[in-house]
Amino acid sequence: MTAGRQHQSGRGPVGPILTCALALLLCCLFVVSLFLGAGDMSFSALWQWDSEAWQLLLISRLPRAIALVLAGTSLAVAGLIMQMLVRNRFVEPSTAGTVESATMGILAVTLLAPGIPVIGKMLVAALFALAGTALFLLILKRVPLRSPFLVPVVGLVLGGVIQAVTTFFAYQHDLLQALHTWTMGDFSGVLRGRYELLWVAFALSCVAYFAADRFTVLGMGEQFTTNLGLNHKRLMLIGMVIVSAISAVVVVTAGSVPFLGLLVPNVVSLVFGDNMRRSLPWVAFLGALFVLACDIVGRLIIYPHEIPIGTVVGVVGSGLFLYLLLNRRTRVA
Predict the structure, then answer these.
(1) Is 332 part of a structural domain of the chain?
(2) Does 214 map to a domain?
(3) Is 331 among the domain residues?
(4) What are phi and psi of 143, to 5 degrees?
(5) Do residues 108 and 126 touch, judged by C-beta distance below 8 A?
(6) Cα–Cα distance between 129 and 41 in angstroms, integer?
(7) Based on the structure, what is the number of domains in the chain?
(8) CA nearest to 240, candidates 89, 145, 106, 137
(9) pLDDT tens per residue, range 217-233
(10) pTM of the shown model
């Protein structure tokens, strides 16, 4: 990242009124998500403890709302870490081949060991995602990057190649429909007992917060990191593991949610700069807020049916992505 932006400390703390307003908005969106849907779950129906409304709330609506918050928080943090690793503000797991590699891992375990538990699928997907991220970083070292705009292009090309190979094998084994489920973020099928892995992603986000100062130094370059007595390769490995595991958990649980890790960190960086200790909590908070809002929009557009959240987030996120690529006046990494 540019030295000017790297040392930017932000434009000042966010006011308490704005903080309370955003927290209240998050709570309101959470409640709206609980009561939005085709099933009857009115307040009058909840007065009866043994009613079907309570079953709907506890089995479907509440797990879905919690999963949205956990996924939004984790993916936004993963995007911020990815930008620190690559030192480029235009990169996140879906533009670096990480998500596509995780999808390939799920396909591989489906073909070779279809009866493996969900935790096993997550571990295999995480290993594939780690390998894909490592390959992306290796390519960046070998390719002369004269412009920061080439970094996400390399990632998109790599992701496209991986996705093409995955699609080919899925077609050969009649798994295209399952592949579409993994690549399209959709929380409509999230139920109690099927989202708990997202707490692992949230725990990894907390680990990232405790290591935030080290990741901030990592974003200043290998030489600077080494001069401060930190192990650059070890920090890179830790960051790659966190990003890969979070991506794998979300893909296994609900599919791919593109551009979320690109949009939220860039918005937060306008206020806090690249001080990860200060910005990470806001990245997590706004990630959850943004995902909840997009999910509600997708459920309202063609109510009582819904548009997958991956589509809604993809439209908004890709628009911002194109804006950042085309607006050369924006300070870039």
Answers:
(1) no
(2) yes
(3) no
(4) -95, 130
(5) no
(6) 39
(7) 1
(8) 137
(9) 887 777 777 887 778 78
(10) 0.83
> What's the pLDDT score for residue 46?
64
For residue 287, what are the domain limits? 3-326
> Residue 85 is part of a domain; what is its CATH number?
1.10.3470.10
How many whole angstroms separate alpha carbon 266 and alpha carbon 251? 23
Alpha-carbon span 103 to 112, nearest angstrom: 14
In a domain, 75, yes or no: yes
Specify the long-range contacts of residues 229-237, CB closer than 8 Å, at least 24 apart: 235/211, 236/85, 236/137
Cβ pair 139, 96 in contact under 8 A:
no
Residue 166 has pLDDT above 80, yes or no: yes
**Tokens 């096993």 label which residue?**
120
Cα separation values, 82 from 58, 76, 85, 103, 122, Å:
35, 10, 5, 18, 20
